[in-house]
């Protein structure tokens, strides 16, 4: 096959190659365009088998098997395959084009900006992937028999998040249909995203992909690689080493999600989730019980847009770039670096501070924002105006919606301010409509409201002391 650049502008069948996207072990990936009558035009992806493999029938059969397995499934979280053909001695597969980012790119950027993907974003992505895995293995496609497809390469580079916020599993190049028995062939997949049975070349079923998804969920919500080290060291850890509980690394990691992650990472398949549908249900239950704001691909798209915005770019420090590179390179994290895990130790300042606070404090953020620092008088007056806004009636909140505090945080994060996305809401109680007034009056009222809390313990202690002194004086007089 000519060089990839030389193919740009040429045609394969009905498709014009317009850009080279990537190079794989067996194929080249191109962005292509299909044009037809009535100004019809659609962008697609062509996966073209490299010329050097065309003379090996077993490789061609593997390529066609990928197309056959991919074409079986129709699921919103699985890439669609439209066609497979051969033109001029070149085999190619035609797939949908997904404009967006890989999960690997999103995780790297999130580590640079906020030290990890947020808890609820990570849980949402994992739930979407669990839905895809459940369909691949237990789905029937209306044919009456389960697909029993094992992906064998579930990894961040094979998960795409589109600009519309949809989460898609791609690349079925080494997928197999039916339970896999041991053989003498080399272990497929990326070595840091294998299951123990995959590493040991043992029989596999759909629970192998569940372990790989558990590894991904652990890593993206903590911003740290799980099975670190060289190929040999990482594979030994997968088989022998129990992962550190997430709360060991991040103290505020939700206990419910920690139990889900650790169950997915059980060494023995019989101790793991027995189906991806069960894992999906637990993740969805966690998102509902935690009142997560991110419940749809619209919110997912908003999160990705914020993480890759120019304002977020201004927040990236040299330490953030170093952490992200360590994540990509899968290098060891020194024990002395554990202090970096206190993600609220340093607060952003300057024009990007508002975005940093919004990403941490909003429902789409990473960490709960601690008490805000002392504000300038003008900022306090502005905050007082926010407090004066009428509070929403509790009865108006629909079931399953975020609580009032989350709504106030979101409203404040979107309010115009000096920063790019606004300042977070004040932690003081909001004044109702029966307490109108200027910002100065609201400030005085708030300070008056705080007086009993400030002097209350001292007044109680003084009363007790006076009572004791009086009792002693009365006893002495007797």
Describe this protein's structure.
With 478 residues, the protein is an alpha+beta fold. Helices cover 44% and strands 12% of the residues. Strand 2 and strand 3 (27-36) form a beta hairpin. Helix 3 runs antiparallel to helix 13, helix 4 (119-138) runs antiparallel to helix 6 (206-222) and helix 9 runs antiparallel to helix 10 (276-289). The longest helix has 39 residues, at 439-477. The chain is elongated, with a radius of gyration of 28 Å. The model is unreliable at 334-352, 360-377 and 386-452 (pLDDT under 50).
Total number of helices = 17
E-strand count? 11
CATH superfamily of the largest domain: Transferase(Phosphotransferase) domain 1
Order of helices and strands: HEEEEHEEEHHEEEEHHHHHHHHHHHHH
Average the pLDDT over all residues and give the rounded result.
Answer: 78
- Tell me the count of domains: 2
**Helical content band:** 40-55%
- Alpha-beta classification: alpha+beta
- CATH architecture classification of the largest domain: Orthogonal Bundle
Q: What's the CATH class of the largest domain, please?
A: Mainly Alpha
Span of the ends, CA to CA:
113 Å
CATH topology of the largest domain: Transferase(Phosphotransferase), domain 1
**Major sheet: arrangement of strands:** 1-2-3-4-6-5
Q: What fraction of residues sit in β-strands?
A: 5-15%
Radius of gyration: 28 Å
Which of globular, elongated, flat, extended, rod-shaped describes the shape?
Answer: elongated
Main sheet summary? 6 strands, antiparallel
- Poorly predicted residue ranges: 334-352, 360-377, 386-452
